[in-house]
Amino acid sequence: GQSLEQPSEVTAVEGAIVQINCTYQTSGFYGLSWYQQHDGGAPTFLSYNALDGLEETGRFSSFLSRSDSYGYLLLQELQMKDSASYFCAVSSNTGKLIFGQGTTLQVKP
Amino acid sequence: DGGITQSPKYLFRKEGQNVTLSCEQNLNHDAMYWYRQDPGQGLRLIYYSQIVNDFQKGDIAEGYSVSREKKESFPLTVTSAQKNPTAFYLCASSILGGTPGDTEAFFGQGTRLTVV
């Protein structure tokens, strides 16, 4: 089967840097993606990694190590509006897109 | 504007009744997905479809049914067999589900189903 693990909660202060880790187990792995969801809203896509290394998109970066079945989302210069839930998701040759349990990020002033 | 639309936003039903949630996309995406989200929890896959007239069970398919008669539409029926149907239901689509080139899923705004 497929499974993902990520921390349930992370707290940081405005302007800081925070890293949200994700480990996964799957066969036929294609890629790891990250989504943001604000309370009551729909998830929105942040990033996707298919190859090892770091992908940077503005204040957000995502990293993947295929050999370690591990990735992380790095958020820099945290803002209050970054308070949300963050999900990692794995895609594979099964056609499924499987999500982790989510990490709630609380940004404090 | 292209997008994915779920309706209704809120739905109330009596216990024992079947209910169908609508999901329509005009993004010309091949793949569509249904997820269930309970408070403070992640997204659990109910059903997914990679092509018209074909769909597969996800991790929690019991008590649910779907159809994919058109590329644009992927309705979900919550049947009376679903023991705890009250939840937030999210529909998503992606260009080429199940392929290495499929990188991003787009979500509808969700339907919040309450069974009383």
How would you describe this structure to a colleague?
- The complex is a heterodimer of chains A (109) and B (116).
- Chain A is mainly beta and 109 residues long.
- Helix content of chain A is 0%, strand content 61%.
- Chain A contains no helices and eleven strands.
- In chain A, the strands form two sheets. In chain A, strands 2, 4, 5, 9, 10 and 11 form a six-stranded mixed sheet that branches. In chain A, strands 1-3-8-7-6 form a five-stranded antiparallel sheet, with no helix packed on it.
- In chain A, strand 4 and strand 5 (44-49) form a beta hairpin.
- Chain A starts with a strand and ends with a strand.
- In chain B, strands 2, 4, 5, 6, 9, 10 and 11 form a seven-stranded mixed sheet that branches. In chain B, strands 1-3-8-7 form a four-stranded antiparallel sheet, with no helix packed on it.
- Chain B is built from no helices and eleven strands.
- With 116 residues, chain B is mainly beta.
Helix content of chain A: under 10%
User: How many beta-strand elements of chain A?
Assistant: 11
Distance between the termini of chain B: 36 Å
Task: Average the pLDDT over all residues of chain B and give the rounded result.
Answer: 93
Class per helix and strand makeup of chain B = mainly beta
Gyration radius over CA of chain A: 13 Å
Secondary structure tally, helices of chain B: 0
**Largest interface summary:** A-B, 26 and 30 residues
* Bulk shape of chain A: globular
**Oligomeric state of the chains?**
heterodimer
Calculate the terminal CA-CA distance of chain A, rounded to whole Å: 41 Å
Q: What share of the residues of chain B does DSSP label as strand, in percent?
A: over 45%
Order of secondary-structure elements of chain A: EEEEEEEEEEE
What is the element string of chain B, with H for helices and E for strands?
EEEEEEEEEEE
- Low-confidence segments of chain B: none
How many helices of chain A?
0
Radius of gyration of chain B: 13 Å
Please identify the structural class of chain A as seen in this structure.
Answer: mainly beta
Q: Give the total of beta strands of chain B.
A: 11
- Stretches of chain A where pLDDT is under 50 for at least 5 consecutive residues are none
- The residue fraction in helices of chain B comes out at under 10%
